[in-house]
Amino acid sequence: MTSSADPGERAAGRAPRRALVAGSVGNFIEWYEFGVYGFFATIIAANFFTPQGGSELEGLVKTYASFGIAFFFRPIGAAVFGRVGDRIGRRPTLILVLLLMTAATTLIGALPTYDTLGVAAPWLLTLLRILQGLSAGGEFGGAVSIMTEFAPPGRRGLYGAWQSFTVALGLLAGAGAAAVLATVMSEESLADWGWRLPFLLTLPIGLVALWLRLRLEETPFFRAAADGEATSAPASAPPERVADPREMAGAIVMGAARIMGWAAAGYTFLVVMPSYLQATLNATFQQALVATVVANAGFALSILPAGLLSDRIGRRPVMLTGAALVVVLAFPLLNVLQDPDSSAWVQGAAVFVAGVVVGLMAGPGPAMLAEMFPTRVRYTGLGLAYALSNAVFSGCAGLIITKVIEHTGEVDIPAYYVMVTCAISVVALFTLRGEDHRGALPGAARPGKDAGREEETPCG
Q1: Between 20 and 30 A from 449 (CA), which of 186, 286, 287, 437?
Q2: What is the pTM of this model?
């Protein structure tokens, strides 16, 4: 029996699903790599940043400094690739950032260590981290633009949540790879060469991701905006002002503040925790990885339901709940981990809950950011808001926590850090309008109908 649907309609129906897959796969690679780097931080420190005579904690601080540098190049990547993506399209830009990320990550797996290359080794590693930061900065804005611009009406929260969900999958895959290697290999082999394998695995994954993105279509809203510019403006007319620079800057800062708690708590609970447990609480590498896998499992399980719920009741109540719960639960959860009399089951429940509450912020977060910016600057605007927040509050999380603990001996620093940042996010989230999730994307001309007639002011 043949379908009565028009081939064009069937193709249009497949486009959102392809957008989800192609947009998600780059995020998976990005966060798989960032997870692997965080999970192997102590081993990377010994191989690249701790010459003979250096302390283990000193090497860990230098490793997190390299980790943080990559994050500070994210805003540059978001600005550069965002501008390209808003000018020439989401699809070609996402292909470019994927190639850059895959190449840089694979090269880390082949990089000679300090013992082989000397002082050049940590500098080369840092250079590759910078390239990763640039590509990661260009990834988020494009992926979220693709997902939300293809989303059916009333489903932006769910579609945008796939970005965060593949973050969780990437972190879980990184933690799983590290856990498997730690189980099947001796500590000596893992520290010598085994740590390289998860980085080298990025190459075949990246090739699959490239194939998926080559099959991706451009978003209908970008095509409509581009067609409108091409047909409605005289050739001699000056470029149309997309948004007032002060309003644009204000929207970026507000977006960064709204996701500050997500950025800080996410990296503290989901990435930095293994090194914290090892260096501060004397946990074994395997124990730290198991705790991280459990936390990321809680994170993954809550993201899509949180995004779906935000489509029904709004982004604000769901994200506020997550940020407020972190403020309330940070100390109790950390005290459970610090208590030597706590059972493994109780500690597992604590880290699982930590992951769940971060997911309440991460699920609606991408759609919330997409709804703040008009189509012609969406890639740049939401990418910059996300990159700036992550540069300061994610990339510096490990460095801040480790360095402050080193100087003060205060083991509760992770709780203080996430409480303060989430409290600021609570205040910023109260400024979010409750009905933004119900309307069309701001500045989104309807494909084939209102092309070229966009509302150019970013939303609050």
Answers
A1: 437
A2: 0.81
Q: How far apart are CA 370 and CA 156, in angstroms?
A: 9
The structure tokens listed for 9 are 């309609």
336: Cβ contacts below 8 Å, ≥ 6 apart:
342, 346, 347, 350
State residue 156's pLDDT score.
Answer: 93
How many whole angstroms separate alpha carbon 436 and alpha carbon 313? 11
Q: What does each C-alpha distance from 64 to 67, 390, 407, 415 come to in angstroms?
A: 5, 14, 16, 19
391 burial level (CB within 10 Å; 0-12, 13-18, 19+): buried
Please, are residues 138 and 81 in contact by the beta-carbon 8 Å criterion?
yes
pLDDT tens figures, 192-201: 899 899 999 9
User: Which positions ≥6 away from 127 have C-beta within 8 Å?
Assistant: none
Q: What single-letter DSSP state applies at residue 243?
A: S
**Residue 412 one-letter amino acid:** D
Q: Which residue has the tokens 């929260």?
A: 157
Select from 416, 144, 174 the least CA-distant residue to 307: 144
CB contact at 8 A, 365 and 257: no
Mean pLDDT within 31-36: 80
Token pair listed for 239: 């470029």
